[in-house]
Amino acid sequence: MEYEVVIGLEVHTELATKTKIFCSCSTQFGGGANTHICPGCAGMPGTLPVVNKKVIEFGIAAALVTNSKINQYTTFDKKNYFYPDLACSYQITQLFHPICVDGSVEIETSQGKKTIGLKQIHMEEDAGKLKHDPFTDSSLVDYNRSSMPLLEIVSKPDFRSAEEVVAYLEKLRSMLKAIGVSDCKMQEGSMRADINLSVRPLGSTKLGVRAEMKNMNSLKSITRAIEYETARHIDLIESGNAHKLKQETRRWDDEKGKTYAMRSKENAQDYRYFPNPDLPPIVISDEWIERVRESLPELPEAKFARYTGELGLSEGDSRLLTGSKVLSDLCDHCIEAGIAPQTAANWITGEVMNLAKNDGKPADDLVLRKESLAKLIGLVEKNVINRNTAKKVLAEVYHKDVDPEEYVKDNGLAMVSDKGAIEQMVKDVLAANEKVVADYKSGKTQARGFLFGQIMKQAKGKADTKLINELLNEQLG
């Protein structure tokens, strides 16, 4: 029998606000345990929540880019359950009137394009974090993450493979980063996914028993977990043990490559949802929605079409540039500063990416002033410095954040462009290397590279390479 895997995702993305969703505590990542808390997010009795307006605006923005219907009357609710890192034994979230519903995200895989439906997007607060100490056999609670603002993006069960899940997460991540809603750093937990998976016979419309794998924050691990869990379900069904499949939450062990049962999976009624009496309903006006819409930047898909069409960049370069907000921002600024699109793309996909790679950083963790990069490329275009010198200056700009123009001036790196001076250098090198010149004239073309290198050495790497080539060709006949 052939089987079909059915997957739905609940994606939690931490919002890029400076303060938490219901208090003014910092959302900065890191910091000592329990240093970013107040009586409110620590769950002290008598404290009252106040909604962060920016969270609402981020919810509206997410709705607009995911083709969702915005609920202009939206409310907060209490979701009741006990867990040690949930200070109040309830979570403030949305059930009855989430900020938006009925959205869609288009993905593309090896099987072509597909539209993934969204059930809803809702706003909620995060819980704290338990830190387990194996030496003392105890657990401590850090409430820094408590009340961090989240958007939970709930898909319909439209996925049929791990490839589709990864394509969806990458698309979602690129959109949310582009509009500044979240940095989506999965390694820091600011984007994580709960995977709801079941298996059924191919052609059946009845859903199988669902297992949930929570808080997955690595695309590689997500792929492995889906493949393992799919095989586990099929094995139990085919061995006559389908009754052992339970609706439960399972933990993925990345080292062992297996999932393990944690607890039975609750249904909505188990959480005893009810409207939060401490937070009034929020009414979102048409004018507010339009203000957010007008503030949205160009989305990656539109940018890709512009890069390949209007700017004439290759699909490969465009894909790399638009896959990262940092890289596309660098490229756009350089073009606005008068740099030719292909020249800007070459520098960014080549030298800039090499620096990031050598530093062990992904593109989106790259820290490089776009003004400095545009200045540096401009110095090359104006023949102030040659490309080899520019590569060295770029390293200083990247590592030490120096101003490229001042650095070139202070270190005497400006190019020697005096034709008479370079011509004399060429003559001196040819005179000192008569045998190499003879080798070149007898057909050993690689000898020319040696002569060029000697001239550059004499010029201390600062000569106009174009002029050197012209004069070298002239002198060699």
Give the arrangement of secondary structure elements.
Layout: E1 3-14, H1 53-65, E2 69-70, E3 73-74, E4 77-80, E5 90-93, E6 100-109, E7 112-125, E8 129-133, E9 138-142, E10 149-155, H2 162-178, E11 191-201, E12 211-216, H3 219-238, E13 248-253, E14 258-264, E15 274-275, E16 282-283, H4 286-295, H5 300-308, H6 315-322, H7 325-336, H8 341-358, H9 370-381, H10 387-400, H11 404-410, H12 419-432, H13 434-441, H14 447-458, H15 465-476
Parallel strand pairs: 12-13
Antiparallel strand pairs: 1-10, 1-11, 2-6, 3-16, 4-5, 4-15, 6-7, 7-10, 8-9, 11-12, 13-14
Describe the structure.
The structure is a single chain. With 477 residues, this protein is an alpha+beta fold. The chain has three domains: 3-283, no CATH class; 298-410, no CATH class; 419-476, Arc Repressor Mutant, subunit A (Orthogonal Bundle), CATH 1.10.10. The chain has helices at 53-65, 162-178, 219-238, 286-295, 300-308, 315-322, 325-336, 341-358, 370-381, 387-400, 404-410, 419-432, 434-441, 447-458, 465-476, and strands at 3-14, 69-70, 73-74, 77-80, 90-93, 100-109, 112-125, 129-133, 138-142, 149-155, 191-201, 211-216, 248-253, 258-264, 274-275, 282-283. Strands 2-6-7-10-1-11-12-13-14 form a nine-stranded mixed beta sheet. A three-stranded antiparallel beta sheet has the order 5-4-15, with no helix packed on it. Strand 13 (248-253) and strand 14 (258-264) form a beta hairpin. The longest helix is centred in the middle third of the chain and has 20 residues, at 219-238. The N and C termini lie far apart (77 Å). The model has no long low-confidence stretch (mean pLDDT 91).
